[in-house]
Amino acid sequence: MKQACKICGNKTRIKYRQLYDDRHGYPGRFDLRECVSCGFMQTAPQLTTREIAKIYSKHYPRAKISPEQVLAAAKNIPSKETIEKKGLGGTCHLDTKPGERVLDIGSGAGYSLAEIKALGGVAYGVDPDKNAERIARKLGFKFHLGFLHNSHFPKKHFDLITASQVLEHTPDPVRLLIACKSYLKPGGRIRMSFPNTGALYRSLWGKAWLHWHVPYHLNHFNKTSVEIMAKKAGLKIRSIKTVTPNLWTVLQIRSWVSQVRMGERNTMWDTGRVDEKKIEAKKDWLKSLSLRFLPMLEDKLFFNRILDWFGRGESFVVEFRLC
Ligand SMILES: [Zn+2]
Fold first, then answer.
1. Residue 258 in contact with residue 274, Cβ under 8 Å?
2. Average pLDDT rounded to a whole number, residues 151-166
3. From the CA of 42, how far away is ligand 1's center (Å)?
4. Contact 127/145 with Cβ under 8 angstroms?
5. How far is CA 153 from CA 102, 120, 138, 183, 266, in A?
6. What is the distance in A from the centroid of ligand 1 to the CA of 316?
7. Is 60 a residue whose pLDDT tops 70?
8. What's the CA-to-centroid distance between 223 and ligand 1, angstroms?
9. pTM reported for the whole predicted model
10. Residue 26 backbone zone (phi > 0: left; psi -120 to 50: alpha; other: beta)
């Protein structure tokens, strides 16, 4: 199936063929198509919004999270030093200032909403997952089940609109930005983070890069496509940088050593545990060894800070403002 580039409308060609969901076991194979003009990449075929809402409820492991767990986590908001050291700057809502009305798009299990509240903000969430609604309602947050463009929230209402690792999941990213614009107060800011295909690790891992994450990730941005998207939405980019969560580097290696077949769930993403027996059964001492030492890396990956210095990190953090 041919697709025109969602961002600039030019032709796309196949970059990688036949990737599959190696986390939650969604069946099917997907190609990645690259725009010949702006370099934006998109998953093909693209799932519809209805399919997406369904697979998030089924394949994303949120059903078991309790409201108590969410509240407990909000007591441990990372300090500025930890954010810096571990590369957590892509957690956009941590930029909340006391008294601000903050809308988090793709608020998921509600950890972000609880943290916005803990930081002194008034939290609003939107997410298509029914599990997200269940938790948000129990905790008393203002919440819209579905997508931003058909939400009941008042227009020109928010000081800060955040979307951390969301834009890559949305069928129409330009439309999402336009919707954000209409809910933003004059002088407000929109902060978004999403994977960067210009990352050095992407070049190194190629087809095995963690953030292709098909079919959940529909969009794969480079810097040029971000600039075109902002222009089309009528927003200006106030700042653009990259961050690389050390955890992502650890997960990349763990995911690679614990590869599963198509249609199979990888226990690592559900339980946080890699099926070591399987790896040991293959007598793969190198993989076993790497698993044992990986957790130690989370505080120590200084190399990631160097990548971010050069803008070659894993995730963009972009702040948009009204023109
Ligand atoms: Zn394009």
1. yes
2. 96
3. 10
4. yes
5. 12, 20, 19, 8, 38
6. 18
7. no
8. 11
9. 0.91
10. beta
Tokens of 219: 């969009």
Residue 103 has a pLDDT of 98
Classify residue 49 by burial, with Cβ atoms within 10 Å: 0-12, 13-18, 19+.
Answer: middle
The CB density around residue 189, as the number of other CB atoms within 10 Å, is 20
Domains of the chain listed by start with CATH number: 49-208+222-244+315-322 (3.40.50.150)
Q: How far is 174 from 9, CA to CA, in rounded Å?
A: 12
- Write down the mean pLDDT value for the chain: 90
Residue range 144-165: average pLDDT?
A: 95
Asked if residue 192 lies in contact with residue 320, where contact means CB atoms within 8 angstroms, the answer is yes
Burial class (CB in 10 A: 0-12, 13-18, 19+), 292: exposed
Q: Using CA atoms, how far apart are residues 275 and 267, in angstroms rounded to an integer? A: 7
Mean pLDDT across 81-109: 93
- Which pLDDT score is estimated for 101? 98
Output 294 or 236, whichever has higher pLDDT: 236
CA of 36 to the centre of ligand 1 (A): 7
Q: Ligand 1 centre and the CA of 14: distance in Å?
A: 13
Confidence of residue 253 (pLDDT cuts 50, 70, 90): confident
pLDDT of residue 61: 59
Distance 251 CA to ligand 1 centre (A): 30
pLDDT tops 70 at residue 104: yes
Task: Give residue 221 CA to ligand 1 midpoint distance, Å.
Answer: 10
Cα 11 to averaged position of ligand 1 atoms, centre (Å):
7
In the three-class reduction of DSSP (H, G, I as helix; E, B as strand; rest coil), residue 160 is classed as strand
Structure tokens at 196: 């960067």
